[in-house]
Specification:
This protein has 160 residues and is of the alpha/beta class. The chain has two domains: 84 residues; 33 residues, no CATH class. Helix content is 32%, strand content 13%. The strands form two sheets. The chain has a four-stranded parallel beta sheet with strand order 2-1-3-4, with helices on both faces. The protein is elongated. Bound molecules: zinc ion.
Length: 160
């Protein structure tokens, strides 16, 4: 949504990028490194999430960034949410390519997902970019468990 924070994750933060996407945040993953992350942050006015203090400290113009204190994804996610809260919308964005998912009418999932899934899944989503079809629990059950642990007791601060 307009006004929600948009992120770019530095290399090494692939797991955090996936978690943020799952929660609905517009998140680019700069897999090739901090130089790419910095470029994207400046080009697209995204908040750079990084563990790398040195690289961009003296960069002009300075990117908007958040220096993550922990190596652990759970703590990183909590830090992001405390500084840049956004409404949590789990399962609304493609974990692979970051596109917002479209809901797919049940009939259109027929023959494109395993029969058992077609019979039992409550709803389906389609990624308009990479054409993947997903459904609740498709590859997210483990992720959901990790996220609910990470977010336990977290009260995000109001936006600055
Ligand atoms: Zn996709």
């Amino acid at each position: 949504m307009a006004g929600d924070p948009r992120f770019v994750c530095d290399a090494m933060l692939g797991r955090l990028a996936r978690w943020l996407r799952y929660l609905g945040a517009d998140t680019v993953y700069a897999r090739s490194g901090t130089r790419e992350a910095l470029h994207i942050a400046l080009q697209e006015s995204r908040i750079l999430l990084t563990r790398n203090r040195r690289y961009f400290q003296n960069h002009t113009p300075p990117p908007k960034f958040l220096l993550l204190a922990s190596d652990r994804t759970e703590a990183q996610l909590r830090q992001v949410l405390q500084h840049h809260p956004f409404p949590l919308r789990p399962g609304t964005r493609c974990l692979v390519c970051n596109s917002p998912l479209l809901s797919l009418p049940r009939e259109e999932a027929r023959g494109r997902v395993p029969f058992y899934v077609f019979q039992t899944a409550p709803r389906f989503h389609l990624c308009p970019e990479c054409r993947r079809i997903t459904w609740p629990g498709s590859h997210t059950r483990h992720l959901e468990k990790q996220l609910s642990r990470a977010l336990q007791g977290l009260i995000p601060l109001p936006p600055p």
